[in-house]
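The methods section describes the discrete structure representation at length, but only in general terms. What matters is that the chain and its backbone geometry are given together, residue for residue. For illustration, here is how one protein appears when written out as sequence plus structure tokens:
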Amino acid sequence: MRPGDPTVEQFDWQMALLARYFLPLPLADALEMTIQHRLPDRAVCVTFDDGYADNAQLALPILRKWRIPATVLSSTAFLDGGRMWNDTVLEAVRSADSGALHLTDANLGEFSISDDESRRVAAHTILNRIKHLPFSEREKMVSLVAQHGSTLQ
């Protein structure tokens, strides 16, 4: 459901390139060097948004292999469970029965979800349409998507 995310093999290849052609730095060091106007050429920082478990399970061994520091940004509101709004949308579309997702009542349109690619397109279109809404409005939309995702025609 996340077509931009690399596979483990692709991530390993990317980190090999970073290790060979760039200067991977810890984020804190790069920020300090930037403030001091002494950031070296080819400096790069690796970061992970949202702190998913696969960062430790899959990415960490590769980062260690290539000796690349990384920063994981965690959504602390979900440390004890729950799910972020974008993951709720992705899961609703991913797990829905094949068919059509009708979200016209939420002004989001209609989507075919007959295969993996159409599901990805639907989920990312929905995410892009609601991500900049005010929090309460976005939560209503997420709830509608989750509700419609479980009652497809």
About this structure: The first strand starts at residue 23 and ends at 24.
